[in-house]
Specification:
Elements: E1 2-7, H1 11-22, E2 27-30, E3 42-47, E4 50-55, E5 61-62, H2 67-75, E6 81-82, E7 91-95, E8 98-101, H3 106-111, H4 117-124, H5 140-148, H6 150-164, H7 174-177, H8 179-188, H9 191-205, E9 216-219, H10 224-233, E10 237-239, E11 244-250, E12 253-258, E13 263-271, H11 275-281, H12 287-293, E14 298-309, E15 321-323, E16 334-337, H13 338-341, E17 350-357, H14 369-384, E18 392-403, H15 409-419, E19 424-426, H16 436-451
Parallel strand pairs: 1-2, 1-13, 2-10, 7-15, 13-19
Antiparallel strand pairs: 3-4, 5-9, 6-9, 7-8, 11-12, 12-13, 14-17, 14-18, 15-16, 16-17
């Protein structure tokens, strides 16, 4: 009889197990895959001149949300955290088939052809727009249009945030995708006012800062360094390659039935899986919750990394990243030059280029490796002029596992949690945020909630 069984060994489930261990719980962590980490997956490729470090899923995390930074400290691996640099340097947006630099500096903004004069003027009027006074959710598109204008959504902000969250800005919840923008509006009345206000506040409080940390964090050997270290330090019952047939209720709590016929009993259960997986497992013990969980959409997502010799990967301009809006009707969603942002990830004379797919055209994620490579190479040749064959490709795919948090998503999650039987909890990217710190926070908080029933 376990105190807690955690289903799902991604970053959420591992963080939950860590929290359980810190509180002395007798726990089990079950994962159907043959490795820990879920979408946190790093591949090390050996090349003649050295190693290439490739993250398939997330490669960095925000330190403004402290959960990943703090956990690295608890694990004793903060000395392995590196600064990957700003995420906005040399960023481009595809506009009418042509990459156009994101104009972040004032002079570049004025000169940029990305937006019309009227669109730029509307953006500059942002400080004079009235703030939203209620806490109701709205779409990412609704927020950006309200504060910055429709053209800013279509040409500027929408492609960037829509690309980051691999979703449709017209339906994506602002409270899930970018709650900080709503916080800035609520606190200061607008985005420009908030930037100025926070800048002065940061200067005022700088002397009081004890901890010096970068804005973004990554790991020297890839983000899997963190999940590997958690798994290494866990001392509970850890099982990989576990297929769960069903979950049953009994007089003491719950039974988890495994495909090999084994039964595991527990007082409490934590589902650290995508909502569509939790939905199926909960059918027998929480029908209403299961039905509501099945309504949360999940789509295909994937990345494919190309390793090139440097002379084969030249572009006309220095591009760190290219965001591709869905209106462009391309087969890929974004391109990032990992080795330009983080030179230590590739040996000298090599370039690591990572391509994201599945958002605009989900079927691309279901292609064979050969067809996927050809599709992506055709896009790279047309969009940024890279025509050479890569030295190596490393593809990753996650089918029907990337959550779509539409407007009202957090209220929907609240409703689902109210229908859950006592002793069952949910955590992970399907619920209250998809970032690494969000998932860590949810996993640890769910364990704290579970402890209240003991």
């Amino acid at each position: 009889m376990f105190d807690l069984i955690i289903i799902g060994g991604g970053i959420t489930g591992l963080s939950a197990a860590w929290e359980a261990q810190q509180n002395g719980l007798f726990y089990a962590l079950l994962e159907k895959d043959d490795r820990w980490g879920g979408k946190v997956h790093t591949e090390i490729v050996d090349l003649p001149e050295g190693r290439a470090i490739i993250d398939g899923g997330p490669e960095s995390f925000l330190t403004r949300k402290p959960e990943a930074w703090d956990l690295a400290g608890e694990l004793g691996i903060r000395d392995q955290v590196i600064d990957p640099g700003g995420e906005t340097r040399h960023m481009y947006i595809l506009d009418g088939g042509t990459p156009v630099e994101v104009p972040l500096a004032p002079v570049k903004f004025i000169k940029s052809r990305l937006m019309s004069g009227r669109g730029k003027l509307r953006m500059m009027l942002e400080p004079f727009q009235p703030p939203k006074r209620d806490g109701a959710d709205e779409s990412l598109a609704g927020f950006v249009t309200r504060r910055l204008g429709r053209e800013a959504l279509d040409k500027f902000i929408g492609p960037i945030l829509g690309g980051i969250y691999n979703t449709n800005p017209d339906t994506q919840s602002i409270l899930v995708s970018s709650p900080i923008m709503r916080e800035m509006e609520a606190e200061y009345g607008g985005l420009v006012k908030a930037v100025i206000g926070r800048m002065f506040s940061a200067r005022k409080n700088k002397s009081a800062e004890v901890e010096n940390k970068p804005r973004f964090g990554a790991f020297k050997n890839g983000l899997q360094e963190m999940t590997d270290e958690i798994a290494k330090q866990l001392t509970g019952e850890l099982r990989l390659g576990v297929e769960i047939t069903k979950v049953e209720k009994d007089e003491k709590g719950y039974r988890v039935v495994l495909s090999n016929g084994n039964l595991l009993s527990t007082k409490t259960l934590l589902f650290a899986t995508p909502a569509n997986v939790a939905s199926k497992l909960l059918e027998g013990v929480a029908g209403e919750s299961s039905a509501k969980l099945s309504e949360i959409g999940h789509q295909n997502i994937g990345t494919i990394t190309f390793i090139y010799k440097t002379e084969d990967a030249h572009t006309a301009v220095r591009i760190h990243g290219l965001m591709i809006p869905r209106r462009e009707n391309r087969s890929i969603d974004a391109v990032t030059f990992t080795s330009l942002k983080m030179p230590s990830r590739a040996p000298k004379d090599y370039v690591i280029l990572r391509v994201f797919f599945g958002g605009g055209k989900p079927d691309v994620a279901e292609m064979s490796d050969a067809d996927l490579q050809k599709t992506v190479q055709d896009e790279l040749a047309e969009l940024i002029g890279i025509t050479a064959d890569p030295v190596q490709i490393v593809p990753f795919r996650w089918l029907k596992s990337f959550p779509q948090a539409n407007v009202g998503h957090l209220e929907r999650v609240d409703e689902i949690e109210k229908t859950l039987p006592e002793g069952i909890y949910l955590a992970g990217s399907s619920y209250r945020g998809i970032g690494v710190p969000d998932c860590i926070q949810q996993g640890r908080q769910a364990v704290k909630e579970a402890m209240k029933v003991f």
